[in-house]
Amino acid sequence: MIKVRIPLAALPLAALLLAAGSATAQDRPSQAVIDAYLKSTFGKASAEWQARIKPDDSLSVCNVTRNNPSSAQSDEMVKRESARVVYPADGKFLGNWKNGYQVANNGRGGQFSDPAGTVAGGNCFACHQLDPKEVSYGTLGPSLAAYGKDRKYDPETIKDAYTKIYNSMAVVPCSNMPRFGVNKVLDEQQIKDVMAYLFDPESPVNK
Amino acid sequence: MKLPIMGAALLAAVVTLAAGPLTAQSPPQDDSEKEIERYRQMLSDPFSNPGFLAVDRGEALWAEKRGTKNVSLEGCDLGEGPGKLEGAFAKLPRHFADADKVMDTEQRLLWCMDKLQGLDTKEVVLRRFSGPARASDMEDLVAFIANKSSEMKIEPPLSHPKEKEMAAVGEALFYTRGGVNDFSCATCHAEEGKRIRLQGLPNLSVKGKTAQETMGSWPTYRVSQSALRTMQHRLWDCYRQQRWPVPEYGSEALTALTVFLQKQAEGGEIKVPSIKR
After folding, report:
1. How much is the ipTM here?
2. CA A121, CA A101: separation in Å to the nearest integer?
3. Could you tell me if A37 and B101 are in contact, meaning their C-beta atoms sit under 8 angstroms apart?
4. Residue B103 phi/psi, 5° resolution?
5. Which of B25, B166, B181 is the best substitution to test chain A (most A C-beta atoms within 10 A)?
6. Is the CB of residue B103 less than 8 Å away from at least one CB of chain A?
7. In degrees, to the nearest 5, what angle opens at C-alpha B258 toward C-alphas B29 and A36?
């Protein structure tokens, strides 16, 4: 199978695919025009910062299709992103749920206002309900209350959840959820701790 | 110095209300938003909104002779003719033939300072956002100019090819994901009734009431920041929260996004400066 590189070569194809969908997306200006605007606005940032807004192959598809990739693009994306998931070498998926709460509750990190070396959190509460007793939660993502309990702490499901946190697009193409592991926002231990917050029977999430 | 105290009191009131009685059955957003809306109504009296101090300062700045040419900004053309302010903000950003460029209020002001007044804008841009005991000429001037379009309708001119390009690019940028969390504007502002933590999020992906109310209420006095803020600050802060690099002040992508958002908000009533958390 020929690997299709999406960013520039496939734009006309993407536009055709979109013709059946959103009417306004057809009017998307050329990537060169969009890039010129991006450069004039973010071009003075350091090279490292600019690299952060350079979309990879998957994100390019999401941008052009407004998160509605075709089924062929979806298949390719899941395949590509699945290959990027690194599972724990020790085979253990669950860390410490108390540390996991700290990670889930921490919204710092990755912003240009953050001091260098700021440890990033997952900021899970921004979008998800987790501990049902916490009233300040967001609704951009589904409720994860009783997550482990509802799934009967099943080992396969535990592995799937790790995959989702490490690389959401390996599960849902163009998912709105950050790719925490792939983008190195969270390290392996932090992900394991969040996993424990979701799956440990003692975690408030499952109480 | 009554104002900071007043700001703090308002903040305390709003924060207290936001943490009011909440249950899992009734979405917390509804209760807290209703209470905040009630307070907004109470605060809508111009004498209670410190944003009007920025308007007054802006009025004085507009008439002040500055720069190497020692002239005021009164000869500045914001699109309706030199010095004509009524309704100008309602049609910004727009194309200006003299610069052959689509400019928003800030870009046009900087252009006038440079070309008309011979004013070094570097220092003005350094103070683009006010801080404690540090006023911002730009915030004050935009507040003054925007207020001259209050009670008018948002009317984005989309006839010039460059205005059309801006709207289209702005729309594409709205959906462009990036940063370490792969966020775009649309991540938070493309669905109805969503919120981050307890903060309700306007859906700006569709034309209509929500976009009209959002765009019609900037510039606004941010109680939590004790400062008047313009759309420039809102977009700067959105990109910060999206984990994107720092956007340049008065730059092309911000103007393009503003054109797109004004298009979404077309026909909405401008009520500024407003007051928000």
Report:
1. 0.88
2. 10
3. no
4. -125, 145
5. B181
6. no
7. 125
Distances (CA, A) of B271 to A28, A101, B53, B239: 32, 42, 16, 25
Residue B34 is predicted with a pLDDT of 73
> What number is the average pLDDT over the span A74-94?
98
Task: Give kind and range of the element (H or E) at residue A50.
Answer: helix A47-51
Q: For B77, left (φ over 0), alpha (ψ -120 to 50), or beta? A: beta
Q: Is the pLDDT of residue A3 over 80?
A: no
Centre a 10 Å sphere on the Cβ of residue A185 and count the other Cβ atoms it contains.
22
DSSP B160: S
Q: What pLDDT sits at residue A19?
A: 40
Which residues, in sequence order, are bridge partners of residue B222?
B227, B276
Distance from CA of residue A43 to its chain's centroid? 25
Q: Residue A63 and residue B178: Cα distance in Å, rounded?
A: 9
Contacts 24+ apart (CB under 8 A), B222-225: B222/B276, B222/B277, B223/B7, B223/B10, B223/B11, B223/B14, B223/B275, B223/B276, B223/B277, B224/B11, B224/B14, B224/B277
Which alpha helices (DSSP H) does B19-130 contain, by range? 28-43, 51-63, 105-112, 121-126
The residues, any chain, with a CB within 8 Å of residue A118's CB and separated by 6 or more, are A108, A109, A110
Residue B36's pLDDT is what? 65
**End-to-end distance of chain B based on CA atoms, in angstroms?**
21
Question: Among this protein's residues, is B188 annotated catalytic?
Answer: no
For residue A88, cis peptide bond before it (omega within 30 degrees of 0): no
**Polymer length of chain A:** 207
Helices (H), chain B: 3-18, 28-43, 51-63, 105-112, 121-126, 137-147, 161-174, 185-189, 209-215, 231-241, 252-264
* pLDDT level of residue A69 (50, 70, 90 thresholds): very high
Which residue among the candidates B76, B112, B185, B238 is catalytic per the annotation?
B238
* Residues of chain B contacting residue A176, judged by C-beta atoms under 8 Å apart: 187
Backbone angles phi, psi at B145, to 5 degrees: -70, -45
B275: enclosing H helix or E strand: strand B274-276
* Interchain CB contact of B252 with A (< 8 Å): yes
Beta-bridge partner residues of B221: B228, B275
The answer to whether the Cα torsion of B42, B47, B51, B52 is positive or negative is positive
Look up the pTM and report it. Answer: 0.87
Chain A residues touching B194 at Cβ < 8 A: 138-140
Distances (CA, A) of A129 to A106, A126, B198: 14, 8, 11
Contacts of B97 (CB under 8 A, 6+ apart): none
